[in-house]
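Ops channel
N.P.: pipeline sanity check, posting one input/output pair.
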């Protein structure tokens, strides 16, 4: 078991950060202290330059082999969607709300792929009326639904069948999706018959196949195994006379949180080329985390340090309602002090927790950190993906502010939620006041 990387090692491995003697930790060109001074904590900060650089690196590695459809669920802020749309990305959405966000950010519905196991009739109608680019169908039942909705609207729905390839992506059980027991996709063996059936249903134009085997995948092997299976299916379907023009290869590219090696875009491109390159297909990838995770931090302040055995608790003003990943998946996120002096001091092991009334409200256990005192600020790393989007107001904690940095400039992209906003929309009916 490797020891945890120290704050200095974490910063050294991430070129988007630098440590200045006076200003402390900088993300791109902006001292994080300046943002915390202006807005308070907790606060999310996303670096536009990092997102753009990552998009461009992935696009360059793919070199026209596949189109990038950003998985909106990873970070659905309009500014983030706008940024990727300006770079030429399409979107992958899993709800009517995400579709509305993508369109609100300026994306054409034709550049959007709609995935998910439970699209409602209302959502399907909305997507078809907007001219959705593709609907990834996850079951025979859903295929019938899409057909009925499209037919009633006099439309032709472009559909891909999502294959469950029964491949173990080797990730956390809560984020694996391509195993037989998962709720996602259509069993591999059922695809040929359903593909043929789809051609006979009204209102459908079957364009191809989709697959997504899980998230935070750090090895090429599972992709290779899944996409080789898909290639076999494409050949079999074509041999049976079906038209297959598109394959959506899903997302899932992993990043380095702790000791993992992030999946290099060149490796993914190599697998796509080797498995599907010769088949004259329009290919799509749907990354979320890889594009935005490393671009974001969650800034927090130490409320107090509680002396306890076996280790002190460092209690932050951020909590599981802000960043849920450690509580939900035991996820490891780097935590670094923002002050240069603190970042360099000798570390000692502590437990880092939030103030929410749950034992699960913990960011790190037995983590070596330099001495922290009330008011010390820390940055929780790799918080750009599945961070703010998974926040709640549990314990009546307002949603944290969000900031976007670009080079040396920064802008508030969502102010901290106010107390009034916490209960906006709540109605107290007269009978609630009656004593019974
Ligand atoms: N496409 C589909 C159909 C998906 O279900 C997902 C993620 C993606 C693309 C994007 O996957 P990514 O490239 O971001 O790995 N909340 C969890 C992750 C859940 C991912 C769900 N599906 C976490 O914080 O780790």
């Amino acid at each position: 078991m490797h020891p945890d990387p120290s704050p200095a090692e974490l910063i050294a491995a991430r070129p988007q950060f630098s440590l200045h003697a006076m200003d402390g930790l900088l993300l791109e060109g902006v001292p994080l202290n300046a943002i915390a001074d202006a807005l308070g904590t907790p606060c999310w900060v996303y670096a536009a330059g990092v997102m753009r650089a990552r998009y461009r690196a992935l696009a360059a590695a793919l070199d026209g082999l596949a189109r990038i459809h950003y998985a909106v669920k990873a970070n659905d802020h309009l500014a983030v969607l706008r940024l990727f749309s300006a770079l030429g990305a399409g979107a992958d959405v899993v709800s009517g709300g995400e579709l509305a966000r993508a369109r609100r950010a300026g994306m054409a519905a034709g550049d959007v792929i709609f995935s998910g196991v439970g699209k409602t009739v209302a959502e399907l109608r909305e997507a078809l009326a907007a001219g959705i680019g593709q609907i990834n169908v996850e079951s025979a039942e859903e295929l019938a639904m899409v057909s009925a909705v499209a037919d009633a609207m006099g439309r032709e729905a472009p559909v891909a069948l999502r294959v469950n390839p029964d491949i173990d992506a080797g990730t956390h059980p809560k984020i694996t999706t391509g195993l037989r027991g998962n709720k996602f996709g259509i069993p591999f063996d059922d695809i040929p018959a359903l593909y043929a059936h789809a051609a006979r249903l009204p209102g459908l134009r079957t364009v191809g196949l989709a697959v997504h085997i899980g998230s935070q995948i750090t090895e090429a092997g599972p992709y290779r195994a899944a996409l080789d299976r898909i290639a076999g299916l494409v050949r079999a379907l074509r041999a049976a006379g079906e038209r297959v023009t598109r394959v959506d290869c899903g997302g899932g590219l992993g990043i380095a949180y702790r000791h993992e090696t992030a999946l290099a875009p060149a490796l993914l491109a190599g697998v796509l080329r080797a498995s599907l390159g010769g088949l004259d297909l329009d290919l799509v990838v749907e990354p979320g985390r890889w594009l935005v995770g490393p671009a974001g931090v969650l800034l927090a302040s130490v409320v107090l340090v509680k002396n306890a055995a076996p280790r002190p608790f460092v209690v932050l003003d951020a909590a599981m309602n802000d960043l849920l990943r450690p509580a939900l998946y035991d996820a490891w996120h780097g935590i670094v002090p923002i002050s240069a002096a603190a970042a360099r001091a000798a570390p000692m092991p502590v437990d880092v927790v939030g103030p929410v009334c749950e034992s699960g409200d913990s960011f790190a256990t037995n983590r070596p950190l330099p001495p922290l005192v009330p008011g010390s600020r820390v940055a929780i790393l790799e918080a750009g993906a599945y961070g703010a989007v998974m926040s709640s107001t549990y314990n009546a904690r307002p949603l944290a502010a969000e900031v976007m940095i670009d080079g040396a400039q920064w802008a508030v992209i969502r102010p901290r939620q106010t107390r009034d906003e916490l209960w906006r929309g709540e109605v107290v009916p007269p009978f609630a006041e009656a004593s019974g």
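N.P.: looks fine end to end. The mean pLDDT is 95.
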